[in-house]
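Incident log, support desk, overnight shift.

02:14 A customer reports that sequence design results differ from what the structure should imply. Their input is reproduced verbatim below. On-call engineer (initials T.W.) acknowledged and began investigating.
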């Protein structure tokens, strides 16, 4: 676990400003358009299903864009008039509270260990038109055990009564088993793939493990694809883009 923490810390080379710049109303035109396509494809994935949906977002390795994708997907679905809750379930090294200027706790871990009765659990993000968020809470010594408990299933079922969509930001699959455990409780999983990050073989392993755990992969997000960014750069923007846009591809592999 320490190794995991260290490697992720070392990878943090971008500034806080850069994180804010890639979410919600601060996004570039190219990114916003790509996220809207993502939202449309998510809606198509659940067409005809009337109940509330839990969508898990994961990746193969750290830093591929899971949190950015989770936040923006939640925000865009909310903008489409749906009731949305974003949950930070990355209990290893979460940065969502900092990115969204929220309190770290009480959060998911606190309610799972039973030291919170739900008060102050759901926070509103001023930056994102009051999007509802549950932060990860105090970092527990045993995240995997906590996420394996029946309590999380009960919690999600309770929350589903109040929200149309619950977006869960998860850790990467190759580092810890948390994402695989929680994938069973989701109605669909999205795998974020950042160009030039995870090796192809590891990505195949991620897909295989998710499928073995009975997860329904509803699609992939290709992050950092420069070609698409360049197109929009030339046509609409005078500024140099930092990353490419997201492209969402239907995986077509339903349970
Ligand atoms: N398409 C993008 N355009 C611009 N910036 C991006 C994009 N995707 C990710 N980033 C930036 O890259 C960094 C890593 O992204 P993010 O935190 O979403 O990844 P993560 O997979 O959640 O990482 P971790 O595994 O550490 O939780 C952040 O600073 C984020 O702002
Ligand atoms: Mg993250």
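02:41 Re-run completed on a clean worker. Output:
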């Amino acid at each position: 676990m320490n190794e995991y923490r260290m490697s992720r810390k070392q990878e943090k080379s971008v500034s806080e400003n850069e994180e804010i710049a890639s979410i919600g109303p601060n996004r570039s035109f190219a990114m916003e358009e790509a996220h809207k396509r993502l939202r449309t494809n998510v809606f198509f994935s659940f067409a005809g299903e009337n109940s509330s949906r839990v969508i898990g977002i994961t990746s193969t390795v750290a830093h591929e864009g899971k949190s950015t994708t989770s936040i923006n997907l939640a925000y865009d679905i909310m903008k489409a008039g749906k009731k949305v809750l974003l949950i930070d379930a990355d209990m290893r090294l979460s940065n969502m509270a900092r990115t969204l200027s929220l309190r770290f706790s009480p959060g998911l871990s606190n309610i799972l260990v039973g030291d919170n009765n739900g008060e102050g659990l759901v926070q509103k993000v001023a930056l994102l038109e009051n999007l509802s968020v549950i932060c990860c809470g105090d970092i527990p010594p045993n995240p995997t055990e906590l996420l394996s408990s029946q309590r999380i299933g009960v919690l999600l079922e309770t929350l589903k009564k109040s929200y149309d969509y619950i977006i869960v930001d998860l850790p990467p699959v190759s580092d810890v088993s948390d994402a695989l455990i929680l994938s069973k409780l989701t109605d669909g999983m999205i795998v974020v793939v950042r160009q030039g990050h995870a090796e192809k073989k590891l990505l195949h392993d991620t897909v295989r493990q998710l499928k073995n755990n009975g997860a329904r992969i509803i699609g992939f997000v290709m992050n950092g694809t420069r070609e698409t960014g360049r197109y929009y750069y030339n046509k609409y923007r005078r500024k140099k883009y930092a990353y490419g846009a997201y492209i969402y591809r239907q995986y077509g592999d339903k349970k």
